[in-house]
Write a structure and sequence with these properties.
By secondary structure, the chain is of the alpha/beta class. Helices cover about 50% and strands about 10% of the residues. The protein has a five-stranded mixed beta sheet with strand order 7-6-8-5-9. It has a three-stranded antiparallel beta sheet with strand order 3-10-4. A two-stranded parallel sheet has the order 1-2. Helix 3 runs antiparallel to helix 4, helix 5 packs across helix 18 and helix 7 crosses helix 8. The N terminus is likely disordered.
Length: about 375
């Protein structure tokens, strides 16, 4: 097994009690191999049955994609080979996830709260904070279903009643879910999301947690100092010499790539490399790309000597973190809403960066990190 693959196989601490999640250390991120993309291993695939389903689906998807690639000749490009690999994993993951949710078992739903999260560290931490807060304040049993891919899967899971709560960001809810144009006012974005989620989906957007995880346009710190760059407009002149790397959702969502390059007049040296969020930072550090769209609360930004360019034209909307909750859950268990309301405004931008760094940079167990944070906040 190559070093990159070995470093990349990491397990969620979500649905398996007591399991310790393995994360990249700073040294591993800097030194991992460049030729093989890591694999995302979800805690949902721990059982033999699900592993078998995933393997069968992946085999079928591989054959379908191979036929498409023969026609389009995408296999001639190394970057397209990378995209092909990720596309197979992504489609297989979505299909297998749906089957997983259907066959999952446990006590009656009325007797437990199911918390989900997306597939990156910050979401895992927030999901664990929600879980521990509810367990401590309500004494209801909590099931963790973390690493549910991206926004679309989490949204479908909560609409289908497969999860009850998950962390979301107001800007993402506005643009990616509601399909509305970006807005710059925190208050207006939150008001709109809260109103539309209640009307359209019978979902409650809880009180903001206190931090804004906007997109961070990052370059290497050495480049920022050498070129004396502070904002995106200044960097636009150098973009024809730079390779860019972005996540899947960023390339597709209304507040993502298309509007971003148009707003700033960016023209990169070739098509952007598309990769999982967990790969972007390593690709930037290893000089595989020169500019990425990461998260502003990423704890590894200062540790890896990266620099966040100011969004001087205010392209990105606010992305305040909020819990999304099924109204049915609050009707049956109002104490759940009370417990989550205690988290309102308790997590600052700096708090979230430190939490992310504790897991990603210091390789600490997410349950311990969440427990320590709640204790520190008097919760």
């Amino acid at each position: 097994m190559s070093e990159a693959r070995h470093l990349a196989v990491k397990a969620s601490s979500g649905s398996l009690q007591g399991q310790r999640r393995q994360n990249f250390t700073i040294k591993e991120i800097k030194n991992a191999g460049e030729n093989e993309p890591p694999l995302l291993v979800s805690s949902l695939f721990q059982s033999t049955k699900i592993l078998r389903i995933k393997r069968d689906l992946a085999r079928e998807e591989e054959e379908q994609v191979r036929l498409v690639l023969r026609k389009s000749n995408l296999h001639r490009s190394r970057d397209h080979r990378l995209l092909r690999r990720h596309a197979i994993t992504r489609r297989s993951f979505v299909t297998a996830l749906s089957l997983t949710l259907l066959v999952s078992c446990g006590p009656p739903r009325a007797d437990r709260i199911v918390i989900g999260s997306k597939n990156f560290t910050e979401q895992l931490i927030l999901g664990e904070i929600f879980a521990q807060q509810i367990e401590a304040k309500t004494h209801l049993p909590v099931e963790r279903r973390f690493y549910l891919a991206g926004t679309y899967i989490c949204q479908q899971a909560i609409l289908g009643g497969r999860i009850d709560i998950y962390p979301e960001y107001t800007g993402t809810a506005l643009t990616a879910v509601l399909k509305e144009s970006p807005q710059n006012s925190r208050e207006e974005v939150y008001r709109r999301v809260k109103s539309e989620y209640a009307t359209r989906f019978n979902l409650v957007a809880g009180s903001p947690l206190g931090f804004n995880d906007t997109f961070a346009i990052e370059i290497r710190g050495d480049d920022a100092r050498r070129l004396r760059l502070t904002n995106i407009s200044e960097a636009a002149a150098y973009s024809p010499q730079w390779r860019a790397g972005f996540g899947y959702e960023f390339m597709e969502r209304p507040d993502g790539y298309k509007g971003f390059v148009a707003t700033y007049g960016l023209h990169f040296a070739g098509e952007p490399r598309i990769m999982d969020l967990g790969l972007l930072t390593r690709a930037l550090v290893n000089r595989q790309v020169d500019l990425i769209a990461g998260n502003a609360t990423d704890g590894l930004i200062p540790a890896l000597n990266l620099y966040v360019l100011e969004d001087d034209r205010h392209y990105f909307p606010p992305y305040e973190a909020v819990p999304i909750i099924r109204q049915e859950v609050l009707s049956h268990h109002p104490e759940v809403g009370v417990a989550l309301d205690e988290l309102a405004s308790k997590i600052s931008d700096e708090d979230m960066r430190q939490l992310n760094y504790a897991v990603d940079g210091q390789h600490r167990d997410v349950k311990e990190v969440a427990r320590e944070f709640l204790r520190k906040k008097g919760l």
